[in-house]
Specification:
This protein is mainly α. It contains 22 helices and no strands.
Length: 523
């Protein structure tokens, strides 16, 4: 027999716990249960895993959308609050407003918006979307708070002008972020989703402004409270946003995926197939693309495993002189110049038009939300259809996206019939269709820009186009604020007639000028 103090005769039976000869079934079950339990140090990792997964590229793409939703919601809420309060502000004695001075404030915003939009696109391309949107959001939130604290026409004029300098930065940030994060075949939808908060903001602005004004007893809180919310959202953006893995300012991975891990084997230069003659590995978007002949097919089959981890280089951005020399830029610019006044009429003049011309009470201005809901549905539907049209035109996706806008512009002439409706219901329905047309154009032009220009230029192109769109709106507003006044040759009905032809004219411009340069590779 063995003494309890002595070691066992067969040490190998006890020094290897998994040995079946040294354990009973009960002991093995106990040890199996203990083996399945995680070590104490593993519990924090399990708790943090869902949080870390949020910042993985696949999920962080949607977190970016959520942030842009909140930012664009407040951006459009701040922008359109003035139009909802138009008649209320005109009745405020301390501000000294009338119809003409209200038009001056709108034009001050748009003039600063036009100038800043072009510059903001360059800023976004230069410093990146994270820092740029922080600056823009803080600036427009402070300006909105200033509007609520204004006690004179001059103060309101200055703060709206400052708002116009800050707000346009959101558009180039959104298109830059969407181009970087969206899968290439889903850019249209992703770009629309980036701005969906603005559509929801437009839908809800009238109801929110009326509610805040009613419960607080003053119109000032309709400016101040959203401004404070904007400062909080700006802080969240600053703390959380990052570019896709490995993407720096002015660069992009061609397939919008993180770079391959360092341990992944790189394809050997000696075995890599030679590119077709006349093509370069670093060719820009405006250089001839490789042919798709037999040598290209052989190259694709020989390097199929490597292509999964190695992306073709992103096209180099064009310089500003090169950018201004492209025919496509001028086509997009002129299309926005002609069509933007219709959308801006809905943003800045429609609530006042409904109050004065259709006798809609202030408390019922929430009806405007249906019009902006239609614009959201139109923009979302157009972005989905744009991707579908692009996929159906595999050899030329740009042509597919353009065809959609040609079809949408057919509904534009409905605008000229609005002044002749005697009932509010057809007026609201007509404006719903018109708003859907406007937002379809906005949603459709963004992926067209991404189809033609390198990522280092998309924000600049969008900014330039928006600048010209704002300039067109300013010129239209100068006529609109005097329409129908004694001694002025134009009437309000004639202004609606002009708006009815604007999208058709933009479609003709798009057809004539916006084309991919011959031999240019797809960005």
């Amino acid at each position: 027999m063995f003494s309890p103090e002595k070691p066992p005769t067969h040490p190998t039976a006890t020094t290897h716990p998994t040995s079946p000869t040294s354990t009973t079934p009960a002991t093995r079950a106990t040890r199996t249960t203990r083996a399945t339990l995680p070590a104490p140090a593993a519990f924090p990792a399990r708790i943090l895993r869902p949080i870390r997964a949020l910042f993985a590229d696949s999920m962080f793409r949607w977190f970016v959308l959520a942030m842009l939703f909140c930012v664009s919601f407040l951006n459009y809420l701040d922008r359109t609050t003035l139009s909802v309060l138009q008649e209320t502000l005109i009745a405020e004695p301390s501000l000294g407003l009338d119809q003409s001075r209200y038009g001056d404030i709108v034009n001050a915003f748009l003039l600063c918006y036009a100038g800043a939009l072009m510059l903001s696109g360059w800023v976004v391309d230069k410093i990146g979307p994270r820092i740029a949107l922080l600056i823009f959001a803080v600036a427009w939130s402070v300006s909105t708070i200033g509007c609520g604290l204004s006690h004179s026409f001059a103060m309101l004029f200055v703060f709206r002008a400052l708002l116009g300098m800050a707000e346009p930065g959101l558009a180039p940030v959104s298109i830059r972020v969407a181009t970087a994060w969206a899968p290439r075949n889903s850019r249209g939808l992703y770009m629309n989703l980036c701005s969906v908060g603005g559509s929801v903001g437009n839908i809800a602005t009238a109801s929110i402004v009326v509610w805040l004004t009613t419960i607080t007893g003053t119109w000032r809180h309709a400016f101040i409270l959203p401004g404070i919310a904007g400062l909080l959202i700006a802080a969240v953006w600053w703390l959380s946003y990052r570019d896709p893995g490995g993407v720096k300012t002015g660069a992009k991975l061609a397939d919008n995926k993180p770079p391959a891990p360092a341990s992944a084997p790189a394809p050997a230069p000696a075995s890599a197939p030679a590119p077709p003659s006349g093509a370069s590995a670093n060719a820009s978007a405006y250089a001839p693309a490789p042919s798709s002949g037999a040598s290209a097919s052989a190259s694709a089959s020989a390097s199929a495993p490597a292509s999964a981890s190695a992306s073709p280089p992103a096209p180099a951005p064009l310089t500003w002189p090169q950018l201004w020399g492209t025919r496509a830029l001028w086509g997009i610019v002129l299309a926005r110049l002609v069509s933007d006044p219709v959308w801006n009429f809905i943003l800045y003049w429609l609530p006042g038009y409904l109050e004065k011309q259709q006798s809609v009470a202030f408390g019922r201005l929430g009806l405007v939300g249906f019009i902006f809901l239609a614009s959201f549905i139109g923009g979302l539907g157009a972005s989905i259809l744009s991707d579908i049209f692009a996929r159906r035109h595999k050899t030329d996706p740009l042509l597919g996206r353009k065809k959609l806008l040609y079809l949408v512009s057919i509904a534009g002439p409905l605008c000229m019939f609005v002044p002749h409706f005697d009932n509010l219901v057809p007026v609201i329905v007509a404006f719903c269709v018109i708003a859907a047309v406007c937002m379809s154009w906005m949603s459709g032009l963004a992926p067209i820009i991404a189809e033609i220009f390198p990522i280092g230029n998309v924000a600049s192109v969008w900014g330039i186009a928006g600048t010209f769109g704002a300039l067109g709106t300013i010129g239209f507003n100068l006529l609109l604020k005097r329409a129908g006044q004694p001694g002025f040759p134009l009437t309000l009905n004639q202004m609606f007639l002009a708006m009815g032809f604007m999208h058709l004219a933009s479609a003709i411009i798009l057809f004539a000028l916006v084309r991919r340069p011959k031999g240019a590779a797809r960005p």
